[in-house]
Design goal:
mainly alpha; 7 helices
């Protein structure tokens, strides 16, 4: 069996990427509806509803569970990884986004604006709210169930 075939038929990997792609497409659709304009850039941006990071790691973990069994060590490892990524999105990355917001506000002050006018503003949409992480996790579950044919 060739490598390309093995990769494209690796169900946990396909589950993860299907979940990520679904989350990103939903993000573009939600942005288009709410903002009344379309942006391809949203397809690759981080942050926002739903969390593609959460969808990706939950899709991977559940895909591993369906393939190797839910008592397998690989499922435990994938689940711990998913929990770490989701915690990071909720806390550390979200706080970094708040810091970027404050720093950008400071740069707008007239007495420092001249010194930093050549610089780009810091990205503020880095982390996720609990709803965004939860929605991403649900997408990961759904994508993995579909990819692995585990319909109830």
């Amino acid at each position: 069996m060739n490598t390309f075939h093995q990769v494209t038929h690796n169900q946990p990997l396909v589950s993860a990427f299907a979940a990520w792609a679904s989350a990103q497409v939903i993000k573009v659709i939600l942005f288009s509806v709410l903002e009344r304009r379309f942006s391809w850039r949203k397809l690759m941006q981080t942050g926002g509803l739903p969390s593609a990071h959460s969808a990706f790691v939950v899709g991977l973990a559940l895909g591993v569970g369906f393939k190797d069994g839910f008592a397998a060590t690989t499922f435990a490892i994938a689940t711990v990884l998913a929990l770490v990524v989701m915690y990071d999105a909720l806390s550390i990355r979200r706080e970094a986004g708040k810091h970027a917001d404050i720093l950008n506000d400071m740069l707008l002050l007239s007495f420092i604006q001249d010194a930093f006018k050549e610089r780009e503003a810091l990205r503020e949409l880095l982390g996720h709210t609990p709803l965004e992480v939860f929605a991403g996790a649900l997408i990961g579950i759904g994508a993995s169930i579909i990819v692995n044919g585990q319909f109830v």
